[in-house]
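Sanity check

After download, print the first record. It should look like this:
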Amino acid sequence: MSNAPLIGIVAGEKSGDILGAGLISALREIYPDAEFVGVGGPDMIALGFNSLVDMERISVMGFVEPLGRLPELYALKKRLRELYVKRRPLVFIGIDYPVFNLKLEEELKINNIKTVHYVSPSLWAYREKRIHKVKRAVDLMLTLFPFETPVYTQHGVDVKCVGHPLADTIGFEDNKLSSREQFGLNLDDDVVALMPGSRSGEIKRLAPVFLAAAMESLTQCPQLKFLIPTSSAANKAQIDALLREESIMPGEKFILVDDSHAAISAADLVVLSSGTATLEVLLLRRPMIVGYKLAAITFAIASRLVKIPYVALPNLLAGRQLVPEYIQHDLTAKKIGEGIVGHMTGAEDHEALMRDFEQIHKSLRLDASSAAAQAVAALIEKDSSQ
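Expected structure tokens:
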């Protein structure tokens, strides 16, 4: 068994893998000999992280969807708890994935292992009573956005807003020309990026609507070209199948690409699923239309609990509606298609929107990975002499 100091981390999805990689890099500056063990994705693994299982095995969302994985998730939690209790990590860091991580954190904290949760659960949106569970489970909460911190301060939970790493890595320059060259597009092309999500369920629910909207918009704007980024071979195969169902052949009008960042940068407008990608679109300063659709049972439960007026991050960060968002039954090909045509025909002025995006960008540019690592180190060193 290694004598190197151990730091436990569990990330449950792609966005958490990105955050975890940034955090590991920053923590290595402080603890160069540390060993990182738990669950992570390819970005974390590339930095030497030891992932005990494939992260895709636990990457499920919603209230109902995880039920089929419960035995596997329980077994993994037990395995991780036993490993950490035996090896006594300096700290355990749960990155997002709150249902799994908060339970594990609570069990580790009972065993006097320091715990950090990175990315606030949506207590500000629903389930505020969960603050008591968080307080039992977490020694330190690291939030990405300023509006998330008050609930923790009010309930005596140690909290620090570290900003978002994307705001640090994405600059203020516009790379539309170079991104278009990457895909063989001209600067004067009218380009829309379609991003129905990275999970199979999201793609199944959103892609048909987005594709139908694209086809509708082509009847009025036949010059449009659509970029569809895919994040994996499985994603690409699923999109290919859906295109065939709509009798759409990938080619000059519908172009599948493997670089979502460049696709956003190349676009005049982005139509996408609600989630972290909306922040990337904001930071790259592109107008967007946001769609959000859950499995029917999950939505029925969530609609009774959610108490906020918006789901799209740009709207939450601004405290008002900056970008259009269409939720569940309101998400139709007609409405999305009308939004595409309205934008591409110059019916809306986006100068004020771009100024709002830039202001939000600056407010989130806090050197997040370094700030998070410093906060974790401060917790590790706290009371270390006792």
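If your output differs, re-run the checksum step. Summary of this record's structure: The longest strand covers residues 6-11.
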